[in-house]
From TrEMBL:
Gene3D superfamilies on file: 3.30.300.30, N-terminal domain of ligase-like
Documented EC number(s): 6.2.1.1
InterPro entries named in the record: Ac_CoA_lig, ACAS_N, AMP-bd_C, AMP-bd_C_sf, AMP-binding_CS, AMP-dep_synth/lig_dom, ANL_N_sf
Gene Ontology biological process: acetyl-CoA biosynthetic process from acetate; lipid metabolic process
Organism, scientific name: Gouania willdenowi
Catalytic activity reported: propanoate + ATP + CoA = propanoyl-CoA + AMP + diphosphate; acetate + ATP + CoA = acetyl-CoA + AMP + diphosphate
Upper classification of the organism: Eukaryota, Metazoa, Chordata, Craniata, Vertebrata
Protein family (similarity comment): Belongs to the ATP-dependent AMP-binding enzyme family.
Signal peptide (residue range): none
Residue ranges of every copy of the AMP-binding enzyme C-terminal domain listed in the record: 555-627
Stored NCBIfam families: Ac_CoA_lig_AcsA (TIGR02188), PRK00174.1 (NF001208)
Protein name: Acetyl-coenzyme A synthetase
Amino acid sequence: MWPCVVSSFSRRLVASLGVCGRRKCCGTAAFMPEAPAFEGVRSRSELRDFSVSDSERFWAAVGNQRLSWISPFHTVQDCDLTQGRIKWFEGGKLNVSVNCLDRHVHTSPDRVALIWERDEQGSEVKYTYRELLEMTCRLGNVLRRRGVKRGDCVTIYMPTCPLAVAAMLACARIGAAHNVVFAGFSADALAERIRDAESNTVITVNQGVRGGKFTELKKTVDEAVQSCPSVQQVLVAMRTDTPVVMTARDVAMEEEMLKEDVVCEPAVMNSEDVLFLLYTSGSTGKPKGIVHTQAGYLLYAALTHRYVFSYHDGDVFGCVADIGWITGHSYTVYGPLANGGTTVLFESTPIYPDPGRYWNTVERLKINQFYGAPTAIRLLLKYGDHWVTKYDRSTLKTLGSVGEPINTEAWEWYHRVVGDGRCPVVDTWWQTETGGICIAPRPSEPDAEIVPGMAMRPFFGIKPVLMDTEGKVLTSNNTSGALCMAQPWPGMARTIRNNHQRFIETYYQPYPGYFFTGDGAYRSAQGYYQITGRLDDVINVSGHRIGTAEIEDNQCSAVAESAVIGFSHDIKGEGVYAFVVLKKNIDIKEDDLSRQLNKMVSKKIAKYACPDVIQLANRLPKTRSGKIMRRVLRKVVERDLDGLGDLSTLDDPTAVQEIVEGHNKNSAQRALK
């Protein structure tokens, strides 16, 4: 049965999508092959409007066309946002790994699926779709033979590498869910996630390699599983030649894979079966196991990958996110592979062996779309243009940013220097909970404007609204409020593992009938959206609510990066405390810098938003994924060092001590004034 299914749907997909890959998208039919079936749709903006006004027809057409089904779905959606009930494509049966591998092997077996950009620069390794399918099948057979069943959850604690991708797809192939844990997390953090997922199997490597440094991942797993009674076996792959101690619980994974067949029968999965868990931070401190399911997630990841980035067949897609995060899931693995694309697995750091690493990679691998984090862009901006311009970046067509709002200066540098002023920059807004990109400048009409630092336009089927403090929808433009979604979409999360009540309380109770994102946003006079930051990253100065991102979006030429938090103020209630990192080789007096920043903030926002305290820092405390740990900065300013918590997930915990010392010095100087 499987060859027939794969063949049928591969032919249909190639026939429908090949048009957009072969010619300029000069009309809606060429842009989206499903569009001719939508009455009255003659432009991309009308297509977006239709996707919202008649979302059921839109998603039915796209779902039928772009996924390979074993059995067709009978119900497009059964959703009720008041109850947190989300179901898409019920009745449909499929296998995600077949959609990501088999159907492409049938048409283009030797097309490159993965380019592994190893930590060692210049030592990339390519894997074709045929090779990735064989690797996935062998590992799927190992898991099956060793007792992993449909519905089990396998925890994966690995660096970004082909075997990690194969592990994700092998789970999908046999019907097990996967729980990828970022390989920088501590043993305690890993153990907590293993226990919540109730995993009986963990997959890891002997050592991780990143930035020229080795991390003992197997040892971390050994420590973690001591407090995880559910774990029965640990599969260990060898990233380096360094031997590790193997216990009775441990399995040499690659040796076992060599014993297996290269054919693994795919499980027949229901659309709403669990595909994976991914743990994200919660306001209570306990991680939330966000649940994503099969068909809806895969369709949304594939559609956003193709249209936000204008990905065409033959392109090389370079998402440099770690697979331990949702960006790595959706735009390193599932989106590109569902589209039959070539995707880069980036194992290293932006500055190893030097600050030209990204652009050396772009030149060598001929990357067409580059997708990275604003924090990395700001970091590289500090080192100057020459690290960029020394490399050929002529293959680049689209630049993307993800993870947090990108400030205007970083956006303009990214566009002007990295993209030579010719590549659109798509500042994307989305979350672990949304499954894929929800707001971005593209897709749009080809000549539509892009405003620096703004996410701008909702994606197909996405209907954002802004809510006031009374829970009423703000209908006018040029206004700010809580960002919510007024209707469901296929990629959204279904629940929090073992705690659906928390899921409802977090996302659906704050504004009944709407999905609450937890973010604040501004809608411009033109109707474009700009994310102003987490609503718990809002500072209330003398009754004025200011998103930290609004202040951090500085255009001061001396500043490379900044982080703003609120602190207790005797008069204002809450004051503004700014941590500032200067660009390399900048020589400026603190008083002059303070005047420049206050003038800039006063002009851009208002005088009340000006920082009350500015502390210079060499670097900011960040997670290994690049996010600034504002929680840590708040604790330092509040002098609650006992409340700093676990710092093991930071890229460099010693940065915190530098911040503490700087704060003490700053406080002493202010006391003398």
